Amino acid sequence: MVKNAYTEGMKHRCDELAVQYLPAVKAMAFRLKERLPSSVDYMDLNAIGTEELIKIARRYDETINDSFWGYAKKRVYGAMLDYLRGLDVLSRANRKLVKEIDKAIDEYLNEHDEEPSDEELADILGESVEKIHDARIASSIYTVMPIDDHLQIGDEGATLKKIEQDELVEVIKKVLIDFKEREQMVIQLYYFEELTLKEISEIMGITESRISQIHKAVIKKIRESIGVHDG
To answer: What pLDDT score does 154 carry?
Structure first.
């Protein structure tokens, strides 16, 4: 009986700890949602984050980690990203089409200085509008993933097997040196400041489509620099 009371008391304290940080989880989910297409539900992200927060609080040991949120933050965010990965937004069938869409958008942008509509892309690629729409949603979701994920796309992780994590940081630094200051700023604001494409567009005075182009060019250059070439 005493043991049960102690266990329940510990559980209650841990749940109280989690409750303190629910606003932080909500803010994190909202911020991530801002970078995602409308098809992804904020409530789903928040629920995933809250569930993870409670799990972490119940196994948290303050004698090992003196900052609960510092300990929990990456894990909660990671749980949200795992949820997005679980949507299987970039199935093998979609990957080829996404690459074709990216190429078509680049060519269209260079010629017209604006991004084509789904209807125009469907006409260019000979695909249905629905298929184009779904593939572009998949691409938008995948864009918020860490650079590590982008290096694995299409090769089942072979890219990351070629290089250690600390080496990857050095490779990224070297690759960015070859890009213009504006392009380096885009990567800084998107990956490290976690701004939306719209916010970066407003800060830098360039279109969201151009920002997306820069992002994809940098990822491609990093892949090539470690010996992985897109087909």
So the answer is: 47
